[in-house]
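fwd from M.: "can u put these together and see what the complex looks like"

so here's what she sent:
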Amino acid sequence: MVLLQISEPGQSPEPHQHRRAVGIDLGTTNSLVATVRSGTPELLTDSAGNQLLPSVVRYQANGAVAVGTQAYDALVEDPLNTLVSVKRFIGRGAEDIKRLGTQLPYELVSGSAGMPNFRTCAGDISPVAASAEILKILVERSESALGGPLDGAVITVPAYFDESQRQATKDAATLAGLKVLRLLNEPTAAAVAYGLDQQGEGLIAVYDLGGGTFDISVLRLSRGVFEVLSTGGDSALGGDDFDRALAGWIGEQADLGDNLDPFQQRQLLKLARNAKEALSVSEQTPVSVADWQGSVSRSLLNELIDPLIAKTLQACKRALRDAGVQATDIDNVVMVGGSTRTHRVKERVREVFGREPLLNVDPDQVVAVGAALQADVLVGNRPGDETLLLDVIPLSLGIETMGGLMEKMIYRNTTIPVAKAQDFTTFKDGQTAMAIHVLQGERELVSDCRSLARFELRNIPPMVAGSAKIRVKFQVDADGLLSVSARELVSGVESHVDVKPSYGLNDDEVTRMLRESYTHAKDDMQLRALREQQVEADRLFEDLSAALTQDGKALLDDREYHCLEVALEDLGRVRNSGRHRDIARHVEIVSKTSEEFAARRMNASIKKALAGHSIDEIDRGE
Amino acid sequence: MDITNNYFEVFGLPVEYDINLRQLSERYHDLQRQFHPDRHVAKTARERRLSEQYTTFVNQAYGELKSPLQRAEYLLGMMGADHGDELLSTLDPDFLMEQMSLREALAEVREADDSEASLQEVANHATSHYAALQREFSEQYSRADVHSAADTVARMQFFYKLLKEIEQLEHELDDY
């Protein structure tokens, strides 16, 4: 076979090289990272053997940044510079954050993109930057455990995260120098971890109550395909709120008053959290604060948190209804998140679903494990693996129309990737521009929805009102990220945005922050770029070689075949040159040259797929 | 392959209203297994793009076939008939009166002593009507009665909206 002769030993890329991939659970309270080794998922630990990395970042005046336990220990003594629960702030606007809680132990200032920043002694820090610090530690941990740079990571996000929160999470990963294979919804990740047995069938409900977020998802599992039927939740409800409720009660008993300083607030919250944790094993626990001494019983805690749990159960009911199923149809209930350890939560969930929830995978670890399994698939380490995740968008997407109304274009719980187009027209005679305001949410009024982006379609030729035809197209990719384009059909004028949510970072900011973080690591960046290009080249090389062997003779004429052979040979040579720009250029050339071939193969394979389904078979099947 | 083929062909199903939903879902999974972007991550950018396009198309087709209303609308379109708001004016007055009284019943649910029970009553009524219309459409479609089928679709659109409003109200009642 000619193809076998073109790559000389030592020059060709390794065809079945194992790639380094991890799954990261970037949590409100704790973060974890896992990988798959020899087919088995494994949590990665720090040098002291800890799996959990507290999601706490402390900024010091000398520029030092501490992350994890070390930062957590400084929580009470240095509250203004020690950031916890950053996930509750990521991708959110100042207004949202005000609603999160009246007493925040931070000083928040407005950032350059209208996004709130934390004021610390090391300067103003965005939630994105703080999250990136946490990710960097996990990347270091992974690279030392796996013995080299990562090829990619799957990062989990609450299913109920909106566009801005997803985009902000992706920005944080970019800032940490991570290649994101996929943003994966946490409940889906958990279902994957539980659905290891690929013969599994049936309906799964995933109840995920973390530190700061609640998610419920209903999935149908069938022969390795996880189809999310519905999802719901509250991106600002979690165990932190349990702590706050209990802290409020203790504060009242101890007569601490309303105006606690940040130091006292932190102390009180920490106290409440310890008491809550103690109550998940015992019925009663002593508490003392200032000169007050008392005790908290489990039944008191239950009373305080019941309204919060009730909110989660309402979301469950709604998700079941959206999925078109009854609680009794559910075959398995999976519990995820540290807050499901709270006794009362387990009790209430059991009542609602009428069955014992599954707890055999540690609720803290299950998301990271699922993410690692999916990362392993996506990076290409498990050819032939049947696992496939079909996820949905959690909240409807639409645009503003006359009268401040939200016109939905894509409804919530629609499977992604998805595209929808709709035609709109002009309101005034001679109108030459149209403002497109992209929104997310379920409510009718624009003011009740989240504003994601605004852009303008200009240079519409002047026409009578109502005669221009503007086609707006929404496209959501497999990560759940949106792009919007608008086109005037008569004149062909076009405009396009990848939705950069108003609360996220704009591209300039990401670039600037990236540049800053790389100032001292220029070589590192060069190396990373080279490595990335090599991976891309290897991928293309393997793929095209295999494709040529398989279908080249059938789908290409002699001249086309020869062309691709030569292009491939070049690529193999340049791949080892060590010049990432050259490699990038060759990758582009070979991709271009092989486009037609790729299209023919895709078509051939679709024909084959459909040929398998004859009318006869259908009649028999029924 | 021409992805402008009709949706039934995409899923290898006979072109008719009463489709086997389980079979539809199985075919959907089969197609996704082959074309989903996650199956093509290790491929060239061009192939990844194609896979995203095909998957988007398959999702669209699946969504429309799965929905009783959208499936009917789609078949009506294939018969060459138009559907949409302009059809509503041709509906008979009795039907419109019935719709109005159903809507009134829905509006009164909030004030009812047992909101949940009265909502359930309206919901049951609407659901059984909607199901009956689906049976009618199927029958009209199979004898190629375009005119009656279009009329039925217009009625289904009414009930679909009503069912959405019922759902919305259920959500609101949950929140109290």
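replying to her w this: Residues 133 and 152 of chain B are 6 Å apart (CA to CA).
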